[in-house]
Amino acid sequence: MPSLKTNFIYNFILTGSNYLMALAVFPYISRVLGPENVGIVNFVDSTIDYFIMLSTMGMMFVGVREIASAKNNPERLSSTFSGLFIVNLIFTILSLLALGTAYIFIPALSKYPEMVFIGVIKLIFKFLLIEWFFLGLEDFKYISIRSLIIKLIFVIGVFVWVRQPSDYEKYYILLVGILVAGAIANWEYGRKKIKFIFNNSSWKSHIRPFLYITSYTLCVNMYNSFNVMFLGIATNETEVGYYTTALKMFAVIIAFYYAFTGVALPRMSALLSEKNIDEFINLIHRTTNTLIALSIPIIISGICLAPQIIFIIGGPKFNGSIIPMILIFPLLIITGYNKILIDQIMMPYKKDKILMRNAAISAIITIVLNILLAKSLGAVGTAIVWIGAEITLLILSMKTVVNLLPIKFPIYDLIKQVIIYIPMGICLWYMGHLINNNYIHFAVGALFTAIYFIIIQYKYIKTPDVNNMIKKFTSIRHIDNKAV
Question: What is an example of a Pfam family matching this protein (predicted)?
Answer without folding.
Answer: Polysacc_synt
